[in-house]
C-alpha cells in the first residue's frame, strides 16, 4: 500500500514551531492523515496562534486531535516531561529563531534556541526512552558560501549565527542516529514561502508591500541586497517531503528544493507586475537590510528526494509570487472591509 492511501489514525506527532509557517501546514497535513497532533507553543504576551486558529480545538472538545502544550526549546526538562506525557510516534523539530538577519543581532539567543534547542530535544528523546522518529529542520543556509548547485554531499560553509546553529543541529541529529540508533532525519530545505510566510522575510515583505501600495497605505518599500539568488518553493509542498522522510525504512538526510535560481530583483519585478505596479517607482535601498556576511547563491539539487521519496515540487517561483500577492491583496481587502464595518456601526 502506498503511504498516500494508508490511514494513520492512532498515530501521534509532536511539532515544535507549530505556530510558524511550516508548523501550521504540517499540522494540517498530519490531521488530514488521521494523526493526533501535539503542538509545542511558547508563552507570549499576546496571541501567537494566528496561523493555526482555523484548526484550533478547545481543551473541552471531546476527542480532539490537535492538542497544544506550553513549553520552550530553551527548557530541556519541560521537553523530557512533554515527551513522557504524550509519547509521540513522530517528532518534527521546526521551532527556531529562524531569521538570518536577526541572528546577527541576537547570536547567542539564536545559538541557544536554533542550535542547542535541537540537542535538548534529541537528548530529551533519549532520556525519556520514548521510541519515536525525529525530523530536524535543517537549512540551505548551512551551505552559505559553498558554490551552487548544493546537494547532500556539498560541504557546509555557514555565513551567519543562524547558519552555524543549524550546522550544529544537523550534526547533532546525525550523531544521535549513529550513536544511539535513533531514527533521525535532516531535511535540508531551501527557501520556501507562502501567504503564511513571516512578514519580514523578503518575499512576504515584497508581496505585502504590493497590496499596501495598491491600497494607498504605503508609498515606499525599503530593501537591502537585490542581487542575492535563492531557490524559492511553495511551503505546503515542502512539509509533505518532511513527512515522507519519516515514513522510509531507514533514516537519512535529504535536500528539498526546486532547482530554479531566482534573484531577489527578479522576484520583486514579478510580484509588482502581478499587482499591476512598476517597482522602480516605489522601491528604495536601505543598507539596514544588508547582512554583515551575505549568502550569494543557494540553488538546490533535490535528485535524491525525487528518487527516494518520490517528491517533486509543482509550484514555480512566478506562480508563487503571484499567489502570494493575490493572498495579500485579499487579506488586506478583508481587513479594510472589517474596519469599515466597525466605523459604520
Ligand atoms: P517560522 O519563523 O515561521 O516559525 C518558527 C517557529 O519556531 C514558530 O512557531 C516560533 O514560535 C517557534 N519558536 C521560536 N522560538 C522558540 C522557542 N524558544 N521554543 C519553541 N518554539 C520556538 O519558521 P518556518 O516555519 O519558516 O520554518 C520552520 C523551520 O524550518 C525553522 O526551524 C526554520 O529555521 C527552518 N527552515 C525554514 C526554511 C524556510 O524557507 N521557511 C528553510 C529551511 C529551514 P512563535 O510563533 O511563538 O514565534
Ligand atoms: P533567508 O531569507 O535569509 O534566505 O533565510 P530572507 O527572505 O530573509 O532573505 C533572502 C535574501 O533577500 C535579501 N534581502 C532581504 N531580506 C530581508 N529579510 N529583508 C530585506 O529587506 C531584504 N532585502 C534583500 C537577503 O539579504 C537575502 O539574501 C530564509 C529563512 O527562512 C531561514 O530560516 C531559512 O533557513 C532559509 O531561508 C533557507
Automatic annotation (TrEMBL):
Requisite cofactors: NADP(+)
Catalytic activity, as annotated: GDP-alpha-D-mannose = GDP-4-dehydro-alpha-D-rhamnose + H2O
Keywords: Lyase, NADP
Enzyme class, broadest EC rank: lyase
Statement: the UniProt record of this protein carries the keyword Lyase: yes
Cross-referenced InterPro entries: GDP_Man_deHydtase, NAD(P)-bd_dom, NAD(P)-bd_dom_sf
EC number, UniProt record: 4.2.1.47
Coiled coil stretches, renumbered: none
Keyword Glycoprotein: no
Gene Ontology biological process terms from the UniProt entry: 'de novo' GDP-L-fucose biosynthetic process
Domain NAD(P)-binding: 14-324
Gene Ontology molecular function terms on file: GDP-mannose 4,6-dehydratase activity; NADP+ binding
Assigned protein family: Belongs to the NAD(P)-dependent epimerase/dehydratase family. GDP-mannose 4,6-dehydratase subfamily.
Function: Catalyzes the conversion of GDP-D-mannose to GDP-4-dehydro-6-deoxy-D-mannose.
Name of this chain's protein: GDP-mannose 4,6-dehydratase
Native species: Streptomyces lonarensis
Amino acid at each position: 500500500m502506498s503511504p498516500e492511501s494508508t490511514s494513520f489514525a492512532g498515530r501521534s506527532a509532536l511539532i515544535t514551531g507549530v505556530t510558524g509557517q511550516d508548523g501550521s501546514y504540517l499540522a494540517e497535513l498530519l490531521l488530514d492523515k488521521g494523526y493526533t497532533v501535539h503542538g509545542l507553543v511558547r508563552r507570549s504576551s499576546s496571541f501567537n496562534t494566528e496561523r493555526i486558529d482555523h484548526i484550533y480545538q478547545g481543551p473541552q472538545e471531546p476527542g480532539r486531535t490537535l492538542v497544544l502544550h506550553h513549553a520552550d526549546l530553551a527548557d530541556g526538562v519541560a521537553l523530557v516531561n512533554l515527551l513522557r506525557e504524550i509519547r509521540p510516534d513522530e517528532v518534527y523539530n521546526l521551532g527556531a529563531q529562524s531569521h538570518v538577519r536577526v541572528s546577527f543581532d541576537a547570536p547567542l539567543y539564536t545559538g541557544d534556541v536554533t542550535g542547542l534547542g535541537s540537542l535538548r530535544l534529541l537528548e530529551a528523546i533519549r532520556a525519556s526512552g520514548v521510541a519515536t522518529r525525529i525530523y530536524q529542520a535543517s537549512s540551505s543556509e548551512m551551505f552559505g558560501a559553498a558554490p551552487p548547485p548544493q546537494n547532500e554531499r556539498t560541504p557546509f560553509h555557514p555565513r551567519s549565527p543562524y547558519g552555524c546553529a543549524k550546522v550544529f543541529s544537523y550534526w547533532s541529529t546525525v550523531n544521535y542516529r549513529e550513536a544511539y540508533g535513533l531514527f533521525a532525519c535532516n531535511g535540508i530545505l531551501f527557501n520556501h514561502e507562502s501567504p503564511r510566510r513571516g512578514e519580514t522575510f523578503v518575499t512576504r515583505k515584497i508581496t505585502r508591500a504590493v497590496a499596501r501600495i495598491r491600497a494607498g497605505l504605503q508609498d515606499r518599500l525599503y530593501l537591502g541586497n537585490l542581487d542575492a539568488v535563492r531557490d524559492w518553493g511553495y511551503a505546503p509542498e515542502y512539509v509533505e517531503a518532511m513527512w515522507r522522510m519519516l515514513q522510509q525504512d531507514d533514516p537519512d538526510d535529504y535536500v528539498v528544493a526546486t532547482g530554479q535560481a531566482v534573484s531577489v530583483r527578479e522576484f520583486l519585478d514579478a510580484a509588482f507586475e502581478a499587482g499591476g505596479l512598476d517597482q522602480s517607482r516605489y522601491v528604495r535601498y536601505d543598507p539596514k537590510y544588508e547582512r554583515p556576511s551575505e549568502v550569494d547563491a543557494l540553488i538546490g539539487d533535490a535528485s535524491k528526494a525525487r528518487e527516494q521519496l518520490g517528491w517533486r515540487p509543482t509550484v514555480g517561483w512566478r506562480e508563487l509570487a503571484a499567489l502570494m500577492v493575490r493572498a495579500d491583496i485579499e487579506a488586506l481587502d478583508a481587513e479594510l472591509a472589517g474596519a469599515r464595518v466597525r466605523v459604520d456601526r
